[in-house]
Design a protein that fits this description.
- By secondary structure, this protein is α/β, with parallel strands linked by helices.
- It folds into four domains: 3-221, P-loop containing nucleotide triphosphate hydrolases (Rossmann fold, 3-Layer(aba) Sandwich), CATH 3.40.50.300; 234-312, Translation factors (Elongation Factor Tu (Ef-tu), domain 3, Beta Barrel), CATH 2.40.30.10; 321-427, Translation factors (Elongation Factor Tu (Ef-tu), domain 3), CATH 2.40.30.10; 450-610, P-loop containing nucleotide triphosphate hydrolases (Rossmann fold, 3-Layer(aba) Sandwich).
- The protein is 28% helix and 28% strand.
- The protein is built from 17 helices and 28 strands.
- The strands form five sheets. Strands 7, 8, 9, 11, 12, 13, 15 and 16 form an eight-stranded antiparallel beta sheet that branches. A six-stranded mixed beta sheet has the order 2-3-1-4-5-6, sandwiched between helices.
- Helix 6 (134-145) links the parallel strand 4 (121-127) and strand 5 (150-156).
- The model is unreliable at 71-83, 428-434, 505-514 and 567-590 (pLDDT under 50).
Amino acid sequence: MSISTFLDQDEKKDLLRFITAGSVDDGKSTLIGRLLYDSKLLYEDQLATLAQESKRQGSAGADIDYALLLDGLKAEREQGITIDVAYRYFSTNKRKFIIADTPGHEQYTRNMVTGASTSQLAIVLIDAEKGVITQTKRHTFLIDLLGIKHLIVAINKMDLVNYAQNIFDEIVESFKSFSARLSIPHIEFVPLSALRGDNVVDVSGKMPWYLGKTLMSMLETIHISNAFNMIDFRYPVQYVLRPDGKYRGFAGRIASGIIRVGDELIVLPSHLKTRVKSINVSTQNQSYAFAGQSVSLELEDEIDISRGDLLVHPQNMPKTGHTFDSTLVWMATSPFDASRTYLLKHTTRIVKARLSEIRYKIDVNTMHRSSVKTLGMNDIARVAVTTQEALSFDAYIKNKETGAFVVIDELSHETVAVGMILDRVAEDVPQSQKRTFERVNYSQDSLVTTQQRLNSYQQKALTFWVSCNQLSECKTFAYELEKRLFESGKHVVVLDASLVGPLLQDKITLIDDFQYNEYLKIFELAKLLNDNGLIAIVNVPIHNISLKQDIKKNIYTKSLVEVFFEVSLKKNNKSQSDADSESDKVESREQIYCVSQNNWEQIITRLSKLVEPEIDCS
């Protein structure tokens, strides 16, 4: 193979950015070092130096200490821990990689956030002797908040537990129980020993019970979608270029979307309109450019544009407002102070802002929410933010570049927090965009009445709203209920938020529970099914009380039945009679049924009776 052919093939390889995370001393640096060593990606002089350093400073006894390849700081080698984020680049025959080895200590969580912000995949290491611990949960929760879609859970140090399958299975179940409350769509598990090289690059013969891929095989073959939003064009202006009296361009990096010569643009916040005259990339003119590229745009009109302005397509506008809800990670040692003014950096713009209200703090262990007045280092909370000047933004889950921000101390200029935008707070939504409730008579032109359909289907048209504190159990129950009703001859449909949400053009997640319009659309769709004689099972987790009230008041009167799956009941040693009495107590208060593993069958039987028909022969 010629050098030119090799370089051409190498250029066409895709790039995967990933991080390693987990608690301190779980073996993150050792794993990456072993990955490089077993992949034959280290030079002979590097290996010789590594062998010498291992004898002098290593912590692996007579073995090579692969962690020394990543722990480059003097303090890291002295303490045997990772303090700062270490980046490594390597390439195999199938793919290029950039690794961010992040710290495991709680006090360095902010460094982990930095490494994860640009990653497409995360490897969370778990010590097989310790299992799932608090820092494991904290890092996983942050991975979810930062929108990373792919997660590999590496259960490390299997050699210390004699490669026991039951220990691996227990850790997998424990992690699944926790992660079910998150919205990471793709999770893989692999047992390995980073120090011994088991299942890192080569298949281990010491764990014949494991039939999955090695870690390297997963990294090389996992399908990663484009890291950028290619739909919504967002171009934050960094600075104005005036090399001579003839050219005036606006330099910056395209945050998302695609731009073409001739496209109409609108400048925010001024709302001035113009068109693209030319696009310059590395001093060359191009007809188009896309997200991730640093370009200079020349416009047809001489209008006032400066650093911090945002160029967008007029048919695809971001949200604009002074207030928004966010998920905030507090990173400073000094506590949160609601009375203070901070600087907020959003894309290329810096404005003054107040963190006006802590709506709740999130416990990473239980996912429970609690009311607090202040935040300490590494606390995660939902916070309302009010800015002095209006910002143009998108929800983080839709567009990372325009949905993220950092909070800066006005005096010390220290970064004190990072945030992910959820949506406007309710008070800041323009009246023209607020949802109005006008029930539509969908069947007004139909020659078949709702009652005629019910008589034909032999059922009552109800909506069963299944919610819970653990998504996997909730979903399983919803589909089991559907199966039972269908087998009894009923006409029933499940509307699962994770499937229906994208069809309604807005992704719905457990984190962003303020998406009024999207949730309401799902329930109005369910009511439409009811109007046509069908039974609907809605699997939507809602924690916002006012949204629940709106659904019950404006969409449903009698046909809504709430079913709550309480996972904590499953973990208690309650008898069957105790569980039954508890569900009866809840049922008597409202039309609400409380489900646990103990009374699963009984509740399904009760719900099946609710849809038995009332025949109207008129």
